[in-house]
Amino acid sequence: MLNAVANALRISAEQNITGLFSCLFPEQLITLSDSDLQDQLTKPTKKSSNDVSSDLYRQLLAFRACAGAFIQKAKDPQDVLNVIMSSEMSVCFPDVVTVYTIFLTLPVSAARNEHSFSELKLLNIFARSYVSR
């Protein structure tokens, strides 16, 4: 039961993060219109305003125009970041690198919730052993 709840929390956290950064997936980055891309970038830009400038949208459009063929071959956001880093485009698109790095390094975990359930499990074990005495 506890494992099912912990897994549900983990899946929920992963879906929230993936939804927030969905425009960074290669298939989305290629197919989204300019206005849809701008709309989808508002949340990540607000959440990462200390790390990413308001120029992210323009940099992402320029990156998409320059590296469209590479993006189409990419399977996931890690591949897109690898293309940027290997071709030294990181100098031209620093905010794009930053937002991909933030997305790829965010922990998708429900560790605090899992810790609480572990403590609850220990309390149950203690209570059972105390009652059985």
The gist of it:
With 133 residues, the protein is mainly α. The chain contains eight helices and no strands.
Protein described:
The chain has 133 residues and is an all-alpha fold. It has one domain (2-131). It has 8 helices and no strands. The chain has helices spanning 2-20, 26-31, 34-47, 56-66, 68-73, 77-86, 94-105, 111-131. Helix 4 crosses helix 7 (94-105) and helix 6 (77-86) runs antiparallel to helix 7 (94-105).
Produce the secondary structure layout:
Elements: H1 2-20, H2 26-31, H3 34-47, H4 56-66, H5 68-73, H6 77-86, H7 94-105, H8 111-131
Helix pairs in contact: 4-7, 6-7
How far apart the termini lie comes to 26 Å
The proportion of strand residues reads under 5%
**Helix vs. strand class:** mainly alpha
- Would you tell me the overall average pLDDT? 78
What is the general shape? elongated
What is the ordering of alpha helices and beta strands? HHHHHHHH
* Number of strand segments: 0
Count up the helices: 8
Return residue spans where pLDDT drops below 50 for at least 5 consecutive residues.
none
Fraction in helix: over 70%
Largest sheet: none
Number of domains: 1
**Rounded Rg:** 20 Å
Key features?
single chain, 133 residues, mainly alpha, 74% helix, elongated
